[in-house]
Amino acid sequence: MTQLLTRADLDDVCVIEKECFGKDAWNFNMLLGEYDGGSVFFGIKHCDKVVAYICARLIFDEADINNVAVLPQFRKQGMAQKLIQTLVDFCMQKNIKKFTLEVNANNLPAKNLYQKMGFESCGVRKGYYHGEDAEIMWLDKEQN
């Protein structure tokens, strides 16, 4: 079950970041900056530890999804989809109906998930991920 994360959960989120993103992981201070800056964090816990999370910055009528990550041993259980849907539902209650994210153009599982959730590709950021392109994706719930 997804839940809104608190500052106390950021240590677990930091572990997920290191496990999933290696040298590109956000450190604790970066996560704290997002948290203190008003970004929302939702997570899924197993044995009282966060094993999957999503972070998004809410800007007026738009949600910019920063990170979606699931520990490798918990993948392929629909957790990322549940997190995205929880974020969308939360935002819709706040009348936020537009969502954007960047995904590594070579990350086919993530791109497929986002497309399944209704996101559409609308551009490319060349070299965004240490020389690899990022695909910019949008979801507009006003049109759906």
- Computed CA radius of gyration, to the nearest angstrom: 14 Å
**Element order: H for helix, E for strand:** EHHEEEHEHEE
The total strand number stands at 7
Beta-strand content estimate: 35-45%
Instruction: Pick out the low-confidence regions.
Output: none
Q: How would you describe the oligomerization state of the chains in this entry? A: single chain
Distance between the termini: 26 Å
Strand order of the largest sheet: 1-2-3-4-5-7-6
Described by strand count, sense and barrel closure, the largest sheet is: 7 strands, mixed
Average pLDDT works out at: 94
Question: Roughly how much helix do the residues carry, as a percent range?
Answer: 25-40%
Specify the number of helices: 4
Task: Summarize, please.
With about 140 residues, the protein is an alpha+beta fold. Strands 1-2-3-4-5-7-6 form a 7-stranded mixed sheet.
